[in-house]
Design goal:
Helix 3 crosses helix 4 and helix 5 packs across helix 6. With 267 residues, the chain is α/β, with parallel strands linked by helices. The chain has a single domain, classed as Rossmann fold, CATH 3.40.50. The protein is globular and about 50 Å long. Helices cover 44% and strands 14% of the residues. Strand 4, helix 4 and strand 5 form a beta-alpha-beta unit. 43% of the residues are buried.
Length: 267
C-alpha cells in the first residue's frame, strides 16, 4: 500500500535518527537546508503533512485523500518515522508531535518544537492565540482562494523578521502552487483550530525543547516560556531576533541548541 506521508531522508542511517515534521501548507523542502545541516551528525527524515507536496507525480498517484483526524495522523507519522528517533516539529507539525510524544511516548526518544504552541487559537484559559474570528476569516479566504490564502499566510509568518521582505520571497518560493490540495489545506486548518495540547504538554515525560522566535506574531514566546517552568524535563529557548521560522532565520543557532540538547539527553 502506498505510504500516505511523503518523506525524504539525509545522512547516515546508522547515526542517531531525527524525524522532522513540517507545518501547515508548507512542504518539507522549506526545511531542507536545515535538515542537511543536521544530517552532518544525524540521520534526518523529513515528512510532509498529508496532501502537502511539491511533487506533482506524488499528488497524482495519491488515491487516498488527506486524513487530518489527529489519531489517524499520529499513526501515519509514527509509521513513517524511524525507530528511536528524536521528533522535531514546526508550527502545526510541532503541535502534532507533542500529541504523539505525550500519548505514544514509546515511539519518541525526545521532542523538539519550533514555533509551536499548545493552542494556536484563543480559548478559555488560553489568551495567547489568534482570535477565533480572525482565524475563521483566514480560513474563509483559503476556502475562497487558496492561492491568496497562502500568500497571506506567508506574510503572517514573516511579520517581525529582521529582513521581512527577503523572508517573504524565500517562503513564497516553497509554496505548493502547482500541487495545491484544497482538502489538505482545509483539513489542516480544521485540525489547527481544534487542536488543544495543553494537557499533553504538561504530561510530557521525555526530554523536550521548545525553540521560539521573540518577534513571532503567531506564537507568543513569553507565554510558552512560563509554561516550561512547570515541567523539569522541558526547556525553552527564545531567539530574540526571529519570527516564525527560526530554522531559516538563524539556522546555525537552531542547530547549536538542538545538538546540545540531544547530546545532554541521549541515553
Amino acid at each position: 500500500m502506498r505510504a500516505r506521508i511523503e518523506t525524504e531522508a539525509f545522512g547516515d542511517s546508522s547515526n542517531q535518527a531525527i524525524f522532522m515534521v513540517s507545518g501547515w501548507a508548507m512542504p518539507k523542502e522549506v526545511m531542507r537546508s536545515f535538515a542537511l545541516r543536521l544530517s552532518q551528525r544525524f540521520y534526518v527524515v523529513m515528512a510532509n503533512l498529508p496532501g502537502i507536496s511539491l511533487d506533482e507525480q506524488w499528488i497524482s498517484r495519491s488515491r487516498i485523500g488527506p486524513n487530518y483526524d489527529i489519531d489517524a495522523l499520529s499513526e501515519q507519522l509514527i509509521d513513517a518515522a524511524p525507530n528511536e528517533a528524536w521528533w522535531i516539529g514546526w508550527s502545526l507539525g510541532g503541535m502534532v508531535s507533542v500529541y504523539v510524544a505525550a500519548r505514544r511516548s514509546s515511539c519518541v526518544l525526545g521532542l523538539i518544537t519550533l514555533s509551536s504552541s499548545p493552542s494556536f487559537i484563543k480559548r478559555e484559559g488560553w489568551d495567547n492565540g489568534m482570535a477565533v474570528e480572525d482565524f475563521d476569516a483566514f480560513s474563509a479566504l483559503v476556502e475562497q482562494s487558496p492561492e491568496e490564502g497562502l500568500k497571506r499566510f506567508v506574510m503572517l509568518q514573516a511579520k517581525g523578521a529582521l529582513n521581512e521582505r527577503a523572508l517573504v520571497k524565500q517562503l513564497q518560493a516553497f509554496l505548493p502552487v502547482k500541487t495545491l490540495s484544497r482538502p489538505a489545506l482545509i483539513g489542516g486548518l480544521r485540525l489547527l483550530k481544534a487542536l488543544d495540547v495543553r494537557r499533553e504538554w504538561s504530561l510530557l515525560d521525555l526530554p523536550n525543547l521548545h525553540i521560539l522566535g521573540g518577534k513571532d506574531t503567531l506564537v507568543s514566546s513569553q507565554s510558552l516560556a512560563q509554561l516550561v517552568d512547570t515541567n523539569p524535563l522541558q526547556q525553552c529557548v527564545v531567539l530574540s531576533n526571529c519570527a516564525h521560522q527560526s530554522f531559516l532565520e538563524e539556522e546555525e543557532e537552531c542547530v547549536r541548541h538542538i545538538e546540545n540538547f540531544i547530546d545532554a539527553n541521549n541515553p
